[in-house]
TrEMBL record:
Gene3D superfamilies: 3.30.70.240, Elongation factor 4, C-terminal domain, Elongation Factor G (Translational Gtpase), domain 3, P-loop containing nucleotide triphosphate hydrolases, Translation factors. Belongs to the TRAFAC class translation factor GTPase superfamily. Classic translation factor GTPase family. LepA subfamily. Belongs to the GTP-binding elongation factor family. LepA subfamily. This is Elongation factor 4. SUPFAM superfamilies: EF-G C-terminal domain-like, P-loop containing nucleoside triphosphate hydrolases, Translation proteins. It is a peripheral membrane protein.
Amino acid sequence: ADSSLTRNFCIIAHIDHGKSTLADRFIDMAHINFSRGPAQAQMLDNMDIERERGITIKSQAVTIPYTAKDGKVYQLNLVDTPGHVDFSYEVSRAISSCEGALLLIDATQGVEAQTLANLYMAMEHNLTIIPVINKVDLASADIEACLHQIDHDLGLDSSLAVQVSAKTGFGVDALFEAIVKQIQHPEGKDAFPLQALIFDSHYDAYRGVIVHCRVFDGVLKVGDEIQFMNTGGVYKVEEAGIFQLELIKTGELHAGDVGYVITGVKTISDVRVGDTITSTNRPAKKPLPGFMDVKPVVYSSIYPVDTNDYEELVSAIEKLKLNDASLIYEKDSSAALGFGFRCGFLGMLHLEVIQERIEREFDLSIVFTSPSVKYIVHLKNGETINIDNPLEYPDPMRVEYAEEPYIQANVITPTQYVGPIINLCMEKRGTQTGMNYLDEKRVELIYEMPLAEVLFEFYDRLKSISRGYASFDYQVIAYKRTDLVRLDILVNGEPVDALSQLVFRGNSQNRGRQVCERLRGEIPRQQYKIAIQAAIGGTIVSRETITAFRKDVTAKCYGGDISRKRKLLEKQKEGKKRMKMVGNVEIPQSAFLAVLKSD
Ligand code: GTP
């Protein structure tokens, strides 16, 4: 292989700016789309949920052969990057597998928060950046404004920008030429010891774990013994090749190549994104830089609505874990909900994706407990403990103080929404650390805020006060001292452990009232009065009552009509499957979810 004819690049874009559509156009135009009909939209996102939500969650690469105007056949390796902040470490590994990036900007929207966040990342890795203005076919496209932003906000040369319509294919040829001309070829040497960066992996039911990698130096061949340098695992290369929608066996990968490796790795947890593959025969001196063990930032427990479904939940979680190394879990149990799992997620979107997959792919009704961040609690006896589960919060008498994680939040908004957004950030205990006018119309606001505040409502409210125009990106920066309390929820005097949450004392009254009100709205009247209370320690901070109601569904049936009666009872039983008994009260699944959601 001649690496002077190779180009490794990724597309960085804000959600919905057209990354998947552009990737599809690349594939169409490179004529490698042989086995699947063109009707199948967005081939790089191969999970249904992704397609429905239009979000790229797991990255996937593709090698596109392209005959350029100079008559040579280039190998263009597109490394797909996930588009959401929850997956930013994966984005960083994908970016560092490339020499260049296409910075895709929706001509009707302009630059947004994630465009900037990813751009900075690409700049840190010294990538050549080609600005690409997409959706120029739309009447509302404002190309002039985009060119201006490219020059002024991004500090890039707008004269190099390529205008395309990923939808119609307009401009895509010119873009291929720009990739070939502007992005440099990879520089590694086959003769050096092997260093290949793992930027993704996926699980295939037939072939096991497929590792996605970029070879920087050396050659990786079938039969070689390899080692993952950071985790230590030693394996034999069973197969290697490139991605062309399917896996195409080549038997070896050379310096500069992007492709896949199949080894005897059994579970995806043994493969860490960011790790370096080397050969045991002639190992590299040190791994490639930037390896990090990704840690979850949000924790929540999952319980089956029907305790009889526990075994099915076990198998669902195990299957999901095969495909998702970042899902962390351990067994958990709750007095109110029975057996379940305590899980760690990369963010709220990750949590929602897992929830949807369990419900949809495994047809299970589940309950999530209130999500929590991880707190550091300093005890009076000098010990420090990490707590992400409210049930493990120690007796307040033993606590000296607690710390909670803070994020740096970057919000980009049209100027007219700055006032309300500043109010929102203040309400969420944010401290402004920066404010940049990107141009006359748009401002970037930088805040330090507790991560816990972002879990509840923040994003939805930001979108609603800015009519969808503000965009948001964040990263966890540090732990800071906080005043923490445990808020308990009691239904008819029984604590519902699954609804307990750790909250900032200043928010506890409001939060307690909110939860009680929502529960009142969600729990149907029953045959006796129900008291819903929120308490901190022994003190009740809020209370709601649901009055009694007598409902006899069979009363309307005439004594003789057994089948009708049975049908009604069955229907009622069906409904109960989605109910959880807590003490003597039936709580619907929706009530647990309602506690997490904002209005
Ligand atoms: P994520 O995967 O969520 O990051 O989104 P994406 O950036 O991949 O965006 P996607 O390709 O899903 O496109 C978003 C929407 O824009 C879709 O409805 C596309 O059909 C539409 N779209 C993309 N490119 C163009 C274009 O050039 N012109 C027009 N008119 N619509 C486009």
